[in-house]
Each structure stands twice: as structure tokens, then as C-alpha cells.
Amino acid sequence: MTTGERMKTRRKEIGLSAERVAEILGVSPATIYRYENGDIEKIPGDRLEPIATALQTTPQFLMGWAEFPFQSGNIYSVKNISPMPEMKKIPLLGTIACGAPILAVENIDDYIEIPKHIKADFALTCHGDSMIGARIVDGDLVYIRAQPDVDNGQIAAVLIDNEATLKRVYKYPNTLVLRAENPNFRELVYQNQELEEIRILGLAVAFSSAVK
């Protein structure tokens, strides 16, 4: 069986049209047909990998070097099973040590795994119910992308008295307002020299709920 024949067989196995494969690869349907029919006998190496990905298989199978359409133990091409996302570890911070950088060892309580596509640099455990209006409750983990500023109204991790808190941030001339997502909590307002005591640690980009 030629590479083109394997392409065609695999495409039909997973229920894709030649037009859909062409759309995924950014080529014309005629090109796919030419590959499959053998009009183009040698598929460029830089094309083989994306073709294999589109067909939920491996380059080795398309080239005839592997017997099965996916590697042994690889179940990602089975229709009713989805792959777990690629993971990475980020620090889970506790109270911030006075004068120490955010990610200093003394600030790190633990390391946790999150999906790699979540662009977060560290996490915080939410304490209390000040952010329940944003569906963030006591015990939730909130994932933070480190940055020194955020837009008005965004939820951010803010350092106050060497402890990180989660609030919506509103900026005005010489004034910073930190607002909870719970009407039972008063706004925190800082002005002029007081602003030197406040530091935005980063933007909240995701959270995982403690409620099961």
C-alpha cells in the first residue's frame, strides 16, 4: 500500500472528506486527491507531519513503517476518548514575605499542575467570601499571570501589607480602588502616598473550584 493509499484509507476511517482535510492543511482539495491517487508520489517531509495530525495518525503509519494508525499505547485517535492537556507546574503562593520577590522560595507553599495553555505564572488560594459574585469561593485556586498593571475592572492579585488579596481594580488619578465581588465588603481606597504600599501582582486568568 502506498502512502497516498494509506492517506485515503485513514481519511475514510475517521470520516473526513478530502475537502475537510484540505481545509485543515490549507491546501486545495485537488492536492489531497493527487497525494491519494499517487500523482504526487513523494510527499515533502514538512507536509507529512501536519497530514498525519489531520488524519489522527503518525507519519510512520503513512510511510508504511508502522502497522497501526497510532503508536502502541496511544489512544488519542479513538473517537470517544480525548487526550488530557499538556500540563505544567506553577508555584502556589502563601503570604508574601516582606521585601522578597513574589516567587521567592519563602513565598511558595507548594507546586501544582495546570494545563499548559493557561498562561499563568503562579496560583493563590482564595480565602473568605469577598469574591463570591465572581463565583470564586473560599478554598478556590486562582491562577495569576504576573504583570505589574491591569485594566480597570479586571480581577487582580494585589499585595497589601505583604499579603496577596484578590479584588477588582479601578484606577483614578492619584487613587486606586479595590472592590470586592460581595456587597457586604467595603471598597478599599488608596490615595497619594498610600499607593506606594500597594502592588499589583498580576491578572487573574482562571480558577478551579473547591466546590465538588
Please summarize the sheet with the most strands: 9 strands, mixed
Overall structural class, as computed from helix and strand content, comes to alpha+beta
Tally the helices: what do you get?
A: 5
How much helix is in the residues?
10-25%
Report on the structure:
- The protein is of the alpha+beta class.
- It is built from 5 helices and 9 strands.
- It has a 9-stranded mixed β-sheet with strand order 2-1-3-4-9-5-6-7-8, with no helix packed on it.
- The chain is elongated.
- The protein starts with a helix and ends with a strand.
- Mean pLDDT is 85; it is low at 71-76.
What topology emerges from the helices and strands here?
Elements: H1 3-13, H2 18-25, H3 29-37, H4 45-54, H5 59-62, E1 87-93, E2 108-115, E3 122-125, E4 141-146, E5 155-160, E6 163-172, E7 175-179, E8 188-191, E9 198-208
Parallel strand pairs: 1-3
Antiparallel strand pairs: 1-2, 3-4, 4-9, 5-6, 5-9, 6-7, 7-8
Helix pairs in contact: 1-3, 2-3
List keywords for this structure.
9-stranded mixed β-sheet, alpha+beta, 9 strands, 5 helices
Summarize the structure.
With 212 residues, this protein is α+β, with helices and mostly antiparallel strands. The protein has 5 helices and 9 strands, in the order αααααβββββββββ.
